[in-house]
Design a protein that fits this description.
Elements: H1 2-15, H2 17-46, E1 57-66, E2 69-73, H3 80-87, E3 91-97, E4 101-107, E5 110-119, H4 123-126, E6 131-134, E7 145-149, H5 150-156, H6 160-163, E8 167-170, E9 174-182, E10 195-198, H7 199-205, E11 218-223, H8 229-236, E12 252-259, E13 269-270, E14 273-274, H9 278-306, H10 308-320, H11 325-362, H12 373-399, H13 403-408, H14 415-451, E15 461-465, H15 469-472, H16 474-482, E16 487-493, E17 503-504, E18 507-508, E19 520-525, H17 529-533, E20 537-540, E21 554-557, H18 558-563, E22 578-581, E23 584-592, E24 607-611, E25 619-624, H19 629-643, E26 652-653, H20 654-660, H21 663-697, H22 699-707, H23 712-746, H24 757-783, H25 787-791
Parallel strand pairs: 5-10, 7-9, 19-24, 21-23
Antiparallel strand pairs: 1-2, 1-11, 1-12, 3-11, 4-5, 4-8, 6-9, 7-10, 8-9, 13-14, 15-25, 15-26, 16-25, 17-19, 18-22, 20-23, 21-24, 22-23
Helix pairs in contact: 1-11, 2-9, 2-11, 2-21, 9-12, 9-14, 9-21, 11-12, 14-21, 14-23, 14-24, 21-24, 23-24
Length: 794
């Protein structure tokens, strides 16, 4: 019997090549898309979870309660890790961890810029990163120690063993001894670095972080396996009270633990409570994967039903000769399984071909894990789920046919069956509409981000790191730059103009409430900062070398003026008013229009700008003449090589760096567009099937209408009208759902677009247009059919 079923399945597959191909391709595309999404989700879920003791690792977070709101971040005092280890017996290990550092590392003639961090001595004891040379106990236990990755060891010394004990030079001025070589970090590592430096050295170079009142680096801890995180959290909540003198009735900092395994996916907090993060994208694309499978499975149902009249007599004969319904269901489910197996094989081939492009798009290194049993279990589950979804309805429907009615030729499909099939098409287009609207909204938000006036001009603005001789001789470097053709202005800043996370509440001014602790962002800049960024000066002036007292004066933005009570001209101008920053008295000399110095995810905060022309510059900013950037860049490179010959020339465009801030949103937008197009294409295959079914059922009706004089256009309109109604119903259902979902997504941005009516009109027009294009093939084919052939059986 099984052999007979296989023969019948094979013959039907060959006899109906067109429908079989559509079925296989539709299922393959749906499964290939889902497999790509599943691989992406699997990678996302694995990030930061590669450590054997990962369940005991935590990040210490701060809830800063000030100015009527709660701000959550990872910034902590630099001395916190050592104090926690002393005060909490539940803590086995603790380590500070700095933000990403960039240094030029050289050994002999081998020179290259590398990225790394400063980390506490317990780091390799906490994180089970394999050490290829050296031990965890001595890796970071002295200020002149450095631990490097296998990649760096092979680059500079040939192999890890040869690197141990050798000297490497950082920024051409400091030598460190290699005391450990660690294995290259895996792709799913949340922390990325190629070297680690001693924590005590970080504290020495940054004395401001050695007090409880200032925060900056991360603090990581490992709890004992038997420790209760809830009890540790309870003690951490008030840990800084009595240590941080700024804490008052209106200002508080409460520490708490975030599991290391949650740090990547759950990075967003609102009012001190975890509020999603990357997990939202994981959930979104998991739903998209299910949607694509559903749409592909529904196609199979519609196409199988469209061909059901061709199989009806076969079912009738089988039943008459004694076939049980269970055996018929088994036969049709077996045929569905055969088609699904072929589709799955094609899907795996497609995934293998598309993975390099998908990796390039998502900045991942995904591979088909053919050696992992879990992947084969996933394929088996996908096979069973898809074949069951696709084959269940046709199998149950065909096996239920009455043999007497079938063999008499009186088979007609009832209203319930028609309603069910049309409902499936409506469901398909609801899902497709959701994806179309989502794609349009994401595109518009990204366009808004890219074109929004940030309050400064990011075009033709170049940033180069202030290092080596450029830092030590900044004044000379600036003068030489200004002599070059194509250079407009030059300045420097402590922080990147795109990301300024430095905050303080150590600001005093006349009339300030002594019990308030208002947080101000702050940065240190050189002369011509406002001019170089093209900031708009509302009142007062920029810093100038003509005013010797400007080293103790300040520029503020509009948000800072409002927080200080200078809300409008009636309240008085802030220009000339006293201001003390960190107990350093001065005056406000300029009021700058608000500009975005952080991501658009957060609102513009009060900002104080200080002058530090003689500070060692972290970021040197150069504005070039429009249209002369390429020539100017060549001149800048030549000058840097002349003044800083032992360090490589590196630079970045502020505009390009701005785009990187929204890399996740850009990737999501691109993936949404691709999968929306895929969903529409697969849904149209289902619509094609239903159109074929309808045309087949109404063959004689169409023949009669043509004999009575109906035109081709009227018949096409007759057949197409019903399907357009289905798409219109889908639009009505999907529009409010799409608005709700995308409105929730936009809440993550402080500055966002409004979802306007035309978005739904555009999505609906696209859906109707694509549906009409799909239906027209079958409608025109049926309308052009010779009525003699349609009616000859009568």
């Amino acid at each position: 019997m099984l052999r007979s079923y296989l023969k019948i399945a094979y013959r039907n597959l060959i006899r109906n090549r067109t429908f079989s191909t559509i079925n296989i391709v539709g299922l393959a595309l749906g499964m290939a898309s889902s497999l790509l999404i599943f691989l992406w989700i699997q990678d996302e879920l694995s990030i930061g979870k590669q450590y054997a003791n990962g369940n005991n690792l935590y990040r210490v977070m701060e809830n800063e309660i000030a100015d009527g709101r709660i701000v959550t971040d990872e910034d902590t005092p630099g001395i916190l890790s050592d104090e926690l280890k002393r005060q909490f017996p539940e803590i086995v290990h603790a380590a500070g961890f700095s933000s990403k550092e960039g240094h030029v590392v050289s050994v002999g003639n081998k020179i290259a810029r590398q990225t790394g961090h400063f980390a506490g001595a317990d780091w390799f004891k906490m994180y089970n990163i394999p050490l290829l040379a050296g031990t965890a106990a001595v890796a970071l236990n002295a200020p002149n120690n450095v631990a490097i990755s296998r990649k760096l060891a092979e680059t500079y010394f040939g192999n890890p063993q040869a690197a141990l004990g050798k000297s490497v030079r950082f920024d051409n001025n400091t030598d460190f001894q290699v005391t450990a070589v660690f294995e290259n970090l895996p792709n799913n590592s949340l922390d990325k670095y190629d070297y680690l430096l001693n924590w005590d050295l970080f504290l020495k170079h940054n004395p401001w972080i050695n007090v409880w009142d200032n925060a900056g680096p991360d603090t990581r801890i490992e709890l004992r396996p038997d420790a209760d995180p809830a009890k540790v959290n309870a003690k951490l909540k008030t840990f800084l009270r009595g240590r941080n003198k700024d804490i008052s009735p209106t200002y508080d900092i409460q520490l708490f633990l975030q599991p290391e395994t949650e740090a990547y996916l759950y990075s967003n907090f609102k009012n001190g409570i975890r509020d999603g993060g990357r997990i939202e994208y994981v959930r979104l694309f998991a739903i998209v994967a299910v949607f694509l499978l559903l749409i592909a499975g529904i196609n199979f149902m519609n196409l199988a039903t469209a061909r059901s009249t061709k199989r009806a007599r076969e079912v009738g004969v089988r039943k008459v000769v004694g076939a049980e319904r269970a055996s018929l269901i088994g036969q049709f489910m077996g045929e569905a399984l055969l088609l699904t197996i072929l589709a799955l094989v094609l899907a795996v081939v497609l995934v293998n071909l598309l993975l390099p492009t998908f990796n390039l798009l998502t900045d991942k290194q995904l591979v088909l894990p053919l050696q992992q049993p879990s992947f084969w279990a996933l394929l088996a589950g996908l096979l069973v789920a898809t074949s069951s979804l696709a084959g269940s309805y046709p199998a149950l429907f065909l096996s239920s046919l009455n043999p007497v009615r079938v063999l008499k030729g009186t088979l007609r499909f009832g209203a319930g069956a028609q309603l069910f099939r049309r409902g499936l098409v409506v469901f398909q287009f609801v899902l497709s509409m959701l994806m179309i609207v989502g794609t349009v909204v994401i595109y518009k938000q990204l366009q808004y981000i890219q074109t929004k006036n940030l309050g400064y001009d990011r075009e033709n603005l170049i940033s180069i790191p202030g290092e080596g001789e450029l830092a030590r001789n900044y004044s000379t470097f600036k003068q030489e730059l200004l002599r070059l053709a194509g250079i407009q202005t030059v300045t420097h800043a402590l922080t990147n103009p795109l990301q300024n996370g430095n905050t303080t509440d150590g600001v005093e001014w006349p009339g300030k409430d002594p019990n308030s602790a208002i947080q101000f962002n702050n940065t240190v800049v050189g002369y011509d900062y406002a001019k170089t960024l093209k900031l708009k000066l509302i009142e007062g002036r920029d810093f100038s070398p003509n005013f010797g007292t400007d080293s103790s004066n300040y520029l503020i933005n509009q948000s800072a003026a409002k927080r200080m009570g200078y809300k409008d001209r009636i309240a008085g101008s802030p220009i000339g008013q006293p201001l003390s920053f960190g107990k350093k008295p001065g005056k406000i000399v300029g009021l700058i229009e608000d500009f975005h110095f952080n991501s658009l995810h957060v609102p513009i905060r009060p900002l104080i700008i200080r002058l530090g022309e003689n500070w060692s510059p972290n970021n040197i900013l150069i504005r070039t003449q429009p249209g002369q950037t390429k020539q100017a860049l060549a001149s800048i490179e030549a000058l840097c090589k002349k003044l800083n010959p032992k360090l490589p020339f590196t630079y970045s465009f502020i505009d390009a760096e701005y785009q990187k801030l929204y890399k996740s949103e850009t990737v999501v937008g691109t993936l949404a567009t691709i999968f929306a197009c895929m969903a529409i294409f697969i849904a149209c295959l289902g619509l094609f099937g239903l159109a074929a079914f309808t045309a087949e059922q109404r063959t004689k009706e169409i023949g009669v209408r043509k004999v009575l004089g109906a035109s081709v256009a009227s018949i096409v309109g007759l057949l197409s009208g019903d399907f357009v109604k289905l798409v219109l119903i889908a639009i009505v259902i999907a529009s409010p759902l799409a608005w709700y979902v995308m409105n929730q997504w936009l809440q993550d941005f402080a500055y966002k677009i409004d979802i306007e009516w035309w978005v739904f009109a555009l999505a609906g027009t696209l859906a109707i247009g694509i549906a009409l294009l799909t239906i027209s093939f079958q409608s025109v084919k049926a309308a052009l059919m010779n009525p003699v052939k349609s009616l000859r059986s009568e």
